[in-house]
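To fix ideas at the outset, we first show an illustrative case, written as a sequence plus integers encoding its fold:
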Amino acid sequence: MKAAALCAAMRAPVRNFTAFKNGERPMRNALDRGSLKIFLIFFIFVFGHSTIASPLPFQTQLDDAGIAYQVPQSGKAILVNIPSFELIAFENGKPVLRSRVIVGAPWHRTPRLHTKVSTVRFRPTWRPTPSMIASGEYTDRIRPAGENNPLGLAAVRLGPGLLVYLHDTNHRELFTQEKRALSHGCVRVQRWDELVAFVLDMDIARVHALANGRRTFDAPAPPIPVTLGYYRRFPDQNGDIVTHPDIYGLDPLSSDLNQNDKGTEIACSQVGQSE
């Protein structure tokens, strides 16, 4: 269709026209035949291109590649794909946000599971878990809220009792690394503010105001489904299927959830909802 339109533009006759008037002298033939053809070709290419090639629905891309993840076709959903170090937020079956993330190191794996958003905590405080303290990596004290807090300025908390969060970080420079299996199991999100705005259906300016305020508090959030998945083959932002490294040594190219992941001690913090 595109080629036919271009050919038709090349063959079309060109009529003289008045482009504009300069004083009393009319300016005729402001564009000659060749330049007009170039203009028509450019117009068809730019404005006709969107009607010629449209991307496949995201679920179709997954199905065609044999990838088992099912995108909810209504409402919101969040997927963290561990091997690709990426978070994708969906609305009505379409990706609306893609962000780099940092996931658990191989010895502190981010678990594979289905859960839901519970709350969003603005300006969280943080206290290391007993295993972090025992390792000598951290001292047993509560870190105050603020930009230097390991959870950053906001944390999306998940199912009740699950101490794995989707959160900001005080080491944002690590997002520039390609291999980002670096955390104790939590998921650090580069575009954390856009994620919070998505979860709370809140203007991002309001997110920034609350995150940089003085108060630590929980904002009620809808129970948006969240999948922490392990899909080594997955579409990138261009729709190309990319194969990612097997960072946890699980081998399958597209593995479903493993209940054994839930039995390991995975936690960002030992401070509970009552902090």
In short: The first strand starts at residue 18 and ends at 22.
